[in-house]
Amino acid sequence: MKFLFVLMEIPRRFLMAPHFAQGLGSLSALLKQEGHQTDLLRVGDIVPDKIARKLRDFDPDIIGISSSSCFAGKLPNVVEQLRQGFNGPILLGGVHATVAPEEAIEIPGLMGIVRGEGEMPLLEFIDCIKSGADHTKIANFWFRDGDRILRNDIRPRIEDLDSLPFPDRDIFDYHNLLAENPVAEFMFSRGCPFQCAHCINAEWNRLYRGKGKVVRYRSVDNAIAEIKQVAERYPEMKQIEFHDDTLTINKDWLKDLCTRYAKEIGLPFACNVRPGTVDEETARMLKEANCTEVRMGIEAGNDFIRKKILKRNLSKEDIIRDFKTFKKVGIRTWAFNMIGMPYETPLTIEETILLNRLADADFAQVSVFTPFPGTETRTLCEEMGWLSDRSMETYFQNESPLDQPGLTLEQVAYYNRIFRWRVMYPRLAPLVGLLCRIPIGRKKVVYDLIFPLIKKLYRLIKYHRDVGENAAAQPHCEGT
């Protein structure tokens, strides 16, 4: 059968480069392995002509939409546009269907939603549609039957990740994606054991309680084989990013991966690391494998917000120590931060800026806090009456979805613009602060005109820096 994936994503104007969606790639690969045809429609901004053209050209039998909660407000419109040229089953999967199923199932035009890991449920659904069998009892699915909602239970987690085919990259036009940004993305594990109150992983774990191991890893043989396959098929790949949530938790697995990677791959790579899960031995192991950058969450400088609101039980000393450890071994550090969190004030934002400077982060990323459905912070914001009706297309916007007494919308926008300058370029911060206070419209300031040019310049500098590092590293990927 012909299956069209519709990927809801951040509009391109907010991104430096398009991305590869691991989960959707896994679904597509499995369907192709079973003899089905797949295609992809990426939806950032809704363009009716683009949707109609894809439906006409591919002529799908089934459509599956993947969406996070950021794009929930767009979903009814997208389904409506799809329905104008398609009468078959339309499904919704991904994060939003998983954490907000009661809301998702009410979207007009959907046949049903699939929650959690979608590989096996989707195969079973397609087989039922193809054979005409009853599909309404498939685990992980919810269906609407008139006024009734049929809510099926969740099946166990997939334990053997090696049993899945490597994610399908062709569906993403991967040659052109790498031509624009030569960084290939990989993920070799699933699951996160931590219970951060702002993250959907905690809700995911509640959903799957008693349904198998939380954290599962692919074998190192399987991981290395995928990298080699991608290197052979896509010679444009010059760097790698590991997007695993918990790459450094299993030290034995990581040691094996780093040893094999250094010997057989050698390309520069970046990875995510949770503070408190590393030591100098781990940092040196990553360095020897040619890790050039680690990305860690600082999130909040204020102890009350970080520990009590976000449930991240990390001290400032823990965070500073781990950032310094990576600095010591020669690995660049990237810090994730949020502003506009519950109980935030300008003073607590100043604490976050200070903690970033004490950690000496090489790059400080900041985003405006969004209380996603299914999270503890969402419940808190609803109980306090702080949640507004302002929609968030992306957490990289300047506007906060919260109305809380200690922080105005103007203050959130100001700090979102100036944050990285205060951390990384403090001497330029007074000038940037001035540009952030000169209005040129209802919501824009002079800085908003200048920053896109600065971003392009940064991207150019980063590209030339990384090219130099690639040449110095002399990568030696052996291929397959």
Write out key terms for the chains shown.
18 helices; Rossmann fold; 6-stranded parallel sheet; alpha/beta; 480 residues; 7-stranded mixed sheet; TIM Barrel; single chain
Describe this structure in words.
The protein is α/β, with parallel strands linked by helices and 480 residues long. It has 2 domains: 150 residues, Cobalamin-binding domain (Rossmann fold, 3-Layer(aba) Sandwich), CATH 3.40.50.280; 287 residues, Aldolase class I (TIM Barrel, Alpha-Beta Barrel). The chain has 18 helices and 15 strands. The strands form 3 sheets. It has a 7-stranded mixed sheet with strand order 2-1-3-4-5-6-7, sandwiched between helices. A 6-stranded parallel sheet has the order 8-11-12-13-14-15. It has a two-stranded antiparallel sheet with strand order 9-10. The longest helix is centred in the last third of the chain and has 28 residues. It is globular. The mean pLDDT is 91.
